[in-house]
Amino acid sequence: MTNKYDAAIIGGGIAGLTSAILFAKRGKRTAVFEQSTQIAPLLSGFDRKGVHFETGFHYSGSLGAGEAGGFLFRELGVDVPLEQYNDQFYDEMTLLGSNRTFKIPTGKDLKKAYIDFFPHQKEGINKYFDLVSQAIEQTPFLNIHKDRFLLDDIFRFNASSKTLKEVLDELFSDDEIKSMLSFSSILYGTPPSLASFFMHAYSAGAMNESIWKIKGGARVLVEAFKKAMESSGVEVFCKKKAVKIEIEGDEKIIHFSDGSTVKSDICASSIHPKEFIKIAPQGVYRAKNIERIMNIPETPGFFTVYAKSRSGKVYNYTNKAFLRDGSYKNDNKDFMYINFSNLKPQGLSLILSVDSNKAVWDIPKEDYARKKEVLLQRIKEESLQYMGFDMDDIEVLDISTPVTLNRYVGYYGCYGPMHLNAGAGILPITKIAGLFVIGQGVISPGIIGAMISAFLLDKIIYARK
Predict the structure, then answer these.
(1) What is the CA radius of gyration of the chain?
(2) Residues 6+ positions from 103 with CB-CB distance below 8 Å
(3) Which of 82, 139, 174, 229 is most open to solvent, judged by the fewest CB atoms within 10 Å of its CB?
(4) Nearest 5°: CA angle at 291, between 289 and 294?
(5) In terms of DSSP bridges, do strands 348-354 and 301-309 run parallel, antiparallel, or are they unpaired?
(6) pTM of the predicted model over 0.85
(7) DSSP H or E run through 366
(8) What distance in Å separates the CA atoms of residue 442 and residue 272, rounded to the nearest whole number?
(9) Each residue's pLDDT tens digit, 352-387
(10) How far is CA 404 from the centre of its chain?
(11) Could you give the CA distance from residue 35 to residue 270 in angstroms, rounded to a whole number?
(12) Cβ-proximal residues to 49 (8 Å cutoff; 6+ apart), any chain
């Protein structure tokens, strides 16, 4: 590590890696600093007893060659082996109240499947899909691959005074279809009563046309980013936790927990916006803006049990969500979700939604252990009840809580801060020249949201020159 870089990136998630490649492509000497032992720790997954578990990615929409994600990969020079997730359906949702299961197809069959399942809600279903399509078509950053917009248009975002809940309540009388359509809020971590309908369309609607998986899992995506960074000359340093940023003239001085420092002309932070404020120099935002960001609620957390079959039984499912009776009225705050890996040997990820409030989890070790045991017992009982699992055949290999997530990425919620309908977004620019923020807390969550935040920053700097 040298003492000076043209561009320094704090945080080695997908947003940070994307931004690093873009800076390097512009001839900047660029370095990435990641606090964990490896880059993209949330996406890389982990292995237990020969079983690989995905932790931050299972599938995504809009990754095809003619779609936004595919375009971004090509621009970065990231070669990702993709394949359609499933030619029939990619998820199942079971309504526990009526004991009905809906298999979610992709593309042109999706709307018809909803109409067949809820024929009495046909008019609302047609209007819903029309509204989602309109929102996507009108959003410049989701059409970044089409050359339909001028440079200045890229910074235009649709705003809506209506929440997802308000739109669904206007369109439908049946709470079950509202519960199913709003369950996709799990993809962006903001409940229906707080989420903008447009944010819902950005995240969930992007999967209405196609669903993609990565051959070999998300670790293959991480390796593809590594290769692209190596070929671009990006330097990467792990176990480097930034604790303070100072300004000296036009330079940014980044202090790390090990006592080392580096200087840079440009500094882009992809860590949680609240954590960025803690290490940023004075004057990074107006006081009112700092207060607003610090008060943004966190997205929900996950309690996840990673397991496998002792006998080697293979479950021929994709993913299954279990929606409780009254789930919609409760803002989808309590659900169980099971991911059945398509890798071999097969792993099972049993997930409960839980509170991500730091105070709930920052407790004495004995209380934390008891909380884990209670949740583990609950997830075992519900897996037996809903799936008929032979629990003697299910071997628990590891458990993850919001505490685990915080240890690796620095926040307790599954996606960091919520994207609220009523609140202004967090934009890449700060009040300090050359100091920026990127990441899924900036534009929208997920891999595409993280990459787009970095592309927008690149366009902001480019437009100013």
Answers:
(1) 22
(2) 88, 89, 91, 92, 113
(3) 174
(4) 110
(5) antiparallel
(6) yes
(7) helix 365-387
(8) 9
(9) 999 999 999 999 999 999 999 999 999 999 999 999
(10) 16
(11) 12
(12) 308, 397
